[in-house]
Amino acid sequence: MDTNAVLDICLQAMIVAAKLAAPVLVTALVVGLAISLLQSITQLQEATLSFVPKAVAVAIALVVCAHWMITEMVSFTNELFTRIPGLLGGG
């Protein structure tokens, strides 16, 4: 196994990790921004007001995107398993 193969696998792993984290992070960002805007408009600075809706939205995003996330992870793992013989020099 050469350095280019290791770097390629690491790059693919980071891309898959970013793709899997994106729906949850974007959801938390959008809900957090909306709640912060609402808090600044109403001048209501309650800590639970920003945490609870964000936690609920992230949980909903996980439920909605879970099938796609598992499919992406399984396809990445299968791709790695199919590359093993080539990485070891056997094919």
From TrEMBL:
Any Pfam family matching the protein: Bac_export_3
This protein's name: Flagellar biosynthetic protein FliQ
Single GO cellular component term: plasma membrane
Record-annotated membrane-spanning stretches: 20-39, 51-70
Cell membrane as UniProt keyword: yes
Function: Role in flagellar biosynthesis.
Family: Belongs to the FliQ/MopD/SpaQ family.
Membrane topology: Multi-pass membrane protein
Primary location class: membrane
Keyword annotations from UniProtKB, A to Z: Bacterial flagellum, Cell membrane, Cell projection, Cilium, Flagellum, Membrane, Transmembrane, Transmembrane helix
GO biological-process terms attached to the record: bacterial-type flagellum assembly; protein secretion
InterPro entries: Bac_export_3, FliQ
Origin: domain of life: Bacteria
Protein species of origin: Pseudarthrobacter chlorophenolicus (strain ATCC 700700 / DSM 12829 / CIP 107037 / JCM 12360 / KCTC 9906 / NCIMB 13794 / A6)
Gene name of the record: fliQ
Compartments where found: Cell membrane; Bacterial flagellum basal body
